[in-house]
Each structure stands twice: as C-alpha cells, then as structure tokens.
Amino acid sequence: MSAELATGLAAEFRAVMAGVATPVSVVTTLTDGHPHGTTVSAFASLSMAPPMVLVSLDRGSELLARLGHGSVFGVNVLGSDQASLALAFARKGSDKFAGVRWSDDAGAPRLAGSPGWLACTVTQLVEGGDHVIVLGEVQRAATTAAAPLTYHARTFGTHAAAS
C-alpha cells in the first residue's frame, strides 16, 4: 500500500472510530505501594465463565510497563461527572494521583466515586499493532447506580436516559 493510501486509510479509520461511543475507564495498578493509572476507552467484557475483561494499552504506556502475567490491575469505570478524572489520567507524568481520592481495593487503586469497579489479575498480554491487549480475570466487582461517562465524536458525554 502506498504512503498516500495508508495516510488516507488512517484518517478514515480514525473518523469511523470517532463515531463509536465507548465507555471511559481509568486502569490502575500499584507498584511498591505507589499508584499508577491511565485513561482508556478500549475496554470490554471478554468472558462470563470465568469473568474476564480486555483492556488495550499503548506500547509506550507507563502503566503497561508495570503489568505482567499475574499482576493485579483495577478498572475504574467512570461516571458522567468524572470527565476531569479522565483528562487528568490521560496526560503523561507521574503525579496523576495528586489530589485524587483513592483506596486500595483487592490490590489495585480504586478511585472514589467511580460507579463501576473491577479488580483483575493479568492472565495474558496479546500483541496488537501499536497496542498490547491485556486480558484480565476479574477477582472482584462492584457497582453503584450512576450514568456512565462515554467518549463519542472526540467528546465526553453520557448515553444514559434523561430523567
């Protein structure tokens, strides 16, 4: 494929994917007692028996460098009022947890106020282009009633029914 065609395909692919509404989550882990995390929109349920999820992380992700087979990670499914958390954890740097309330829940940082929580153990890392897909077996799950934060058309929002 020529460079011109590849560039056009990449632009069209980005446009198509911008039209897909995705949940917004912050994936977290602890290393030597210190919390680490990053915002992801590529997160999905994988299996019910056993309960498993998949998370896609950029190969250059600082969080990915801290995960290996058997590692514990958390998935904080954000609520519609947590766009500021999504932005804070999307940036580079080591001070993402500054001013953020969190607790250790099953070995991973759980962000206060997140309506969805999963504590997982890494079962496999799968290469996928410029990302690595982290497969995790769910060890703990918790939820509260709240509208989800979604990302669609390069904008945060929610797709919960209006009350």
TrEMBL record:
The keyword NAD does not apply. GO terms for biological process: pyrimidine nucleobase catabolic process. One of its GO terms (molecular function) is riboflavin reductase (NADPH) activity. Keywords: Oxidoreductase. The keyword Oxidoreductase applies. Residues 17-158 form the Flavin reductase like domain. This is Flavin reductase (DIM6/NTAB) family NADH-FMN oxidoreductase RutF. It comes from Modestobacter versicolor. The lineage of its organism: Bacteria, Bacillati, Actinomycetota, Actinomycetes, Geodermatophilales.
